Fold this protein.
Amino acid sequence: MASVALPAPRKTTSRNYLNAATTVKSWLLTTDHKRIAILYLISISVMFVLGGAAAGLIRLQLLTPNNTLLTYDAYNKSFTMHGVIMVFFFLIPSIPAVLGNFILPMQLGAKDLAFPRLNLLSWYVYMVGAIFTLVALLWGGVDTGWTFYTPYSTQYSATAVIPVGLGVFIVGFSSILTGLNFIATIHTMRAPGLTWFRLPLFIWALYATSLVIMLGTPVISITVLMVAIDRILHVGIFDPALGGDPLLFQHLFWFYSHPAVYIMILPTMGVISEIFATFSRKPVFGYPFVAMSSLAIAILGFLVWAHHMFVAGISAQSALIFSFLTYLVAIPSAVKTFNWTATLYKGSISLDTPMIYALSFIGIFLIGGFTGLFLASLGTDIHLTMTYFIVAHFHYIMVGGAIFGFLAGLHYWWPKMTGKMYSEFWGRISSVVIFIGFNMTFFPQFIAGYWGMPRRYHTYAPEYQILNVLSTAGATILAVGYILPVIYLLASLRNGKPAGNNPWGATTLEWQTSSPPPTYNFLKTPIVTDAVYHFHLPAGDIAVDGHGDGQALGPGSAPATPALPAKTTDER
Amino acid sequence: MSAESFWSYLFAKSTTGRQVDILFWTLILVTLAFSIPIVGTLTYFVFKYRRKSPDEVPPQIHGSNLLEITWTGIPLIMALGFFFFSATTYLHMVVPPANAMDIWVIGKQWMWKTQQPDGQWEINELHVPVNTPVRLTMTSQDVIHAFYIPAFRTQWDVLPGRYSTMWFQATEVGTYHLYCSVYCGTEHSEMVGWVTVMDPGDYEKWLAGKAATASAAGQPVQTPAQQGEALFQSNGCATCHVQAGGGIGPSLKGVAGSQVQLEDGSTVTADDTYLRESILQPAAKVVKGYPNVMPSFQGRVTEEQIIALLAYIKSLK
């Protein structure tokens, strides 16, 4: 009874969501959340490569203090393109739209999301937004920075502000549709027995994220629309020459764009909770606190936006209030970190690739989080804001947080998504290469920022060169680290060993079905009989098969008797 | 650009900068005091509790309310402490001493113009005496810029259409970087210069020498108030704003800094931003008892001229 040995792969059909239909049309018109997740994975990967190429140009330009590799405008357009693509088209959709889309319904024991066609629509909306933005960027580009600060963006920039703004406007609806779908699904489609406090922490994290998406995204959409109106019609919403207020833009912009950071980091936190539980075979320590801290972050995250504006001209009173609230939002993150650490206590820890990524995440998140305190503190923020210190800080949160979380999750669920195991050796190597490359790229930027190097500088004072050389060298290593997973993950599709249902011995529902899963995920709707993360149960006993749905898949695939749960388990 | 060495840079060159440094290094210590134990504990657990056999089942520990309270409470208390620490530093940084010397700053794509109290302008340079509080009143002619002196650990945004202020008191003679730190367009990275901190004697000599050069070139230096008075006449302001009162517009004597009653019944403090707005958009806030007939001077006076006019209005006591 005490065994959590990998259960023998359940005898399953070879029919799964990947081979159920193979035409291009079957992919482009699919409503299967798993296929849509794959479509998103491909799309955001392409965008990541483009955003990464722009980052490469930036790092090359900064190799020497007075480099002429890029012109002023080419440089300014590069960092704008890097920011716009990475923030709106990679980081925000990364975990929710790929891993969330794939895993959320399965962790709930559901057949799909609540609105499958809306889910497909969200991908098309994403693609329209992406194409809009890319065409505009390539058609001359835009040089405002991803922050579109007025009145530069409304009056002075002679570049393609409106098309890129529309791209951002459009892609916002894709996020909103995904968030709406997730909230509806979590409320209505949990399997029998899957009560709120039995939900995996990844679900709680996505729930909190979806709330932020739904409440925040409309604001950025309206804001870029107002920029366009100001630019075309000279209404004077943000332009002081016409009686407008440029600070109003910053308030509106950060009202979304600060919570957007939580859209990136909350899903990562969910992934980390799943991985820490599975690879230490222990329930996440303080489950309700970890779950509620996600909601606390989502709520407090809406109350701190003006900490981006401490030197922008807000009153001392508001600066003090926003500094105070920013300190508060650090607490739930600290609570999570302590709970993750405690989860490992007396665990049975296995350092597989996802776990190495998850542990790396903790280290990087500590640095990213603590440097956030330097920026929450008014006295130090006045000095450090708008320098490379802030560039380093948000890359530690957004790259270190979101990308490490994404890679951790991708490696964790890859066997489920594809049915194949990747090379563990190369997985570990690449995680270490990325960790080293990442720190070498961004740690020197903290020092450059402390030393006063402003961000978005095309040329710089000679004393900062050594730090920039280190950073560029690190970026090169990081690029290699990013290429490796592409190679060995794709190779695993061909050569990988079959994964089996549950290669990690995990306890959440997605591991109860075959890998890759059948089109409707479960041949029988699972009935949940115990709390999540109970590793003393043989993996098969966390849920039992309900009845019915598997027949939809066609004859011959389902186990013969759809038994209702006969066993009772100890509730706790 | 020339260089500013890291070792010298480690010690801030302004009074508030030193407070920022203390806060900065205290935060570094706190970061280390928390991070090292967390990373140490994680590392220890990872090695101590490595999986020993494939079917190992560890004890299932669910949590501890006592621990949750502890590790919520301690960071919360520390956060509150640091909030007050940093807020104190901040309040020192935002409230300039009353006796501060006044410098005007105009930012424009892509240069800084600074005006000494005697009316002389510099471009991408700022000379100030050491150990003297200096207040900068800044505005932008176009987009948002920010005036950043890393060695003084301070910066502030410079916005079009309003005045922002910052202050510092340099503690050491030397030359320090001046940057624009808010992205402002194509040549943002060229909007840089130097702040030169001098002994008061040297500073006076420098000012006098610069003034002498200007006089020799046929452009004698006038104080901002003198420049403003000339503009007040040449733009016809004096026709309506009769100093003795009784003009079409209100007398401007003593108006700067006073409370002004408006037509809509509200009251406004006549600070720089209000005076500026009254020149450019006179209809925005009409003084009680006067007709709304003043034409807008938007586009007819430069930022430099507005600064001179403000100086003149302030000199009317």
